[in-house]
What we know:
about 25% strand, rod-shaped, 11 helices, transmembrane helix, Transmembrane protein, 3 domains, transmembrane, alpha+beta, membrane, Immunoglobulin-like, four-stranded antiparallel sheet
Amino acid sequence: MSEDxxxxxxxxxxxxxxxxxxxxxRVIASYGQAQLNHALSIAKHLGRFESMSTVQGTASSGENQxxxxxxxxxxxxxxxxxxxxxxxxxxxxxxxxxxxxxxxxGVWKVFDAQRIKEEESQAVLREWTSQTxxxxxxxxxxxxxxxxxxxxxxVHLSDAPxxxxxxxxxxxxxxxxxxxxxxxxxGFKVFEHLVKLSDLSRNVDNEGKAIGFETQFDEFMxxxxxxxxxxFTVRWNLITKMSQPAPEPREPPRPEQAGxxxxxxxxxxxxxxxxxxxxGQVRETGLGEYSAGARSVTFLSTGELLNCR
Length: 309
């Protein structure tokens, strides 16, 4: 004889439920109040929910409960089930977030380690020189290093020429100086800095005589730009010597100052040209016509004087 389907379903439900309240609520929700006593009997027969006395007590209590009270108990069970499911979802979300955060932290640590290694390689001191002594009277050397997105530069001048230490040229050069320029492998400028004479500190010997200059500076620079630096050059706008004043214009010498009048009568062609040369370089400006400065003579083809001034 086959088992009643409802009885079989109630038996499975009794085995699946963890508490009597859950069992009663699910029976009422699925099969109605009429099946509750039958379901409790099945649960009692299966030995579910702790002990027989508990089942009996609960059954009698269930018999005395009103349908509305039992419905409220079912709703409470459903609410507890909802919050239990929501809690599980929340826990899963938190765990996922923690896992993602751990992965992100691991990736960041890897990149940060690579960044630190790259920055440490650029913190090594690099030295540069430029041979400018034949032009300026001193050679220029520099030392550089990169740290925390800034390039630090130390500049040294090997000598102290007079135009940088003696008046009046020193005063003329205080706002001038040298341009230290750092270039890439192809000679293109990466960055440049003007080192003014007023920025330089003087190095002196035991007798207090200037023997050179030096200074330091720093400025912002991305590490990629500093890695491109491969060369070092120097430009300048210093005045290295005093300019000479232009000579005052002089009037051409008068004939008596030149020695003799080139227009005097009875002179030969050669003598007139010789006397004309006292006024400057003699140039032939036309046929038989010669001039020097503002003076000139004109001869006929026979060598005789045609005109003189």
